[in-house]
Amino acid sequence: MFQEIKKLIGKGEIEKALEMLAGHSRSAKVQLSSFRRMLQEKLMGTISVEQEELKFNRAVAAALKIIDQLEAKNTKGDIGSNATPQSSNDEPPKTVKIFISYARKDRRYKTELEVHLRVLKREYKDKISHWSDVEINPSVEWDKKIKDELKQAQIILLLISPNFLASDYIWENELNKVLKRRNKDKIAVFPIFLDHCRWSKFDFAKLQGLPRDGSFIKNLKNRNRVYVEIMDALALLINDRLK
Q1: Do 160 and 197 touch, CB atoms closer than 8 A?
Q2: By the 8 A CB rule, do 196 and 216 touch?
Q3: Is 102 in contact with 110 (CB distance < 8 Å)?
């Protein structure tokens, strides 16, 4: 069931995904009600494009989080009393932080990528975490939060597209800082090419990214194949940082 819901999320069918989750989670019912209010506001023309995108992205993040919680609950139920409690003297596991830099108009591809990142997170037993601006709580100053998360990230994914290159905020507050940190702190910067644009004219053109054959994710019939290749490349970077 959860795989089917993740596919719906990847296609942007958030209302259907929340409807399926609502039968298993009270939080999903609340999110579904909130999402439907947003859709009504959109029909009435009482919500801005920016507010719509923000609420949509928060609904995606909430749905994925609910799936994680339900899957963890099911796993815990299977393990039962045979589970070995972690010693209170154990040191907390090292965590590799991943930051996703993207243009909001490309949120569809960011959502698809996050589905695969959550699978990778499960594989590494929560030793990795990823962050994008949809994780911002409404009460938090979003600009400061983005800058703080960017400083802490060890791996940074750049979702390259015309929208990405045209964004003043990305250039001024994310990309310039990322490239400076790459030289100073030895962080990993990983371009992911979404669509045709003049990316080869900029500093990050010398970085190895995916797809490697000159194609772009937007044009691929089976995007999951490339997302799996991206996860394989990320696993190498993660393993290096967990040593």
Answers
A1: yes
A2: yes
A3: yes
Choose one of 84, 114, 137: the last residue of a domain.
84
In the block, tokens 């959860």 appear at 2
Q: What is the pLDDT at residue 85?
A: 39
Contact indicator for 5, 17 with CB cutoff of 8 Å = yes
Q: Looking at the DSSP assignment, which residues form a beta bridge with residue 189?
A: 156
Other CB atoms within 10 Å distance of the CB of residue 83? 10
Task: Identify which of 217, 21, 28 has the alpha carbon closest to the alpha carbon of residue 111.
Answer: 217
Do 97 and 79 lie in a common domain? no
Lowest model confidence (mean pLDDT) among 121-125, 161-165, 219-223: 121-125
- Total domains present in the chain: 2
pLDDT at 141 over 70: no
Residue 178's identity, in one-letter code, is V
Contact 134, 32 (CB under 8 A): no
What is the rounded (10 degree) CA torsion for 69, 72, 78, 84? -130
Per DSSP, which regions of the chain are E strands?
96-101, 128-131, 155-160, 188-193
Dist. CA 116–CA 68, nearest whole Å: 13
Look up residue 73 and give its amino acid: K
Whether 35 and 15 have beta carbons less than 8 Å apart is answered as yes
Distance CA 3, CA 19 (A): 15
Tokens of 9: 């999320």
The whole-model pTM stands at 0.64
Q: SS3 breakdown of the chain: % helix, strand, coil, rounded to 5? A: 65, 10, 25
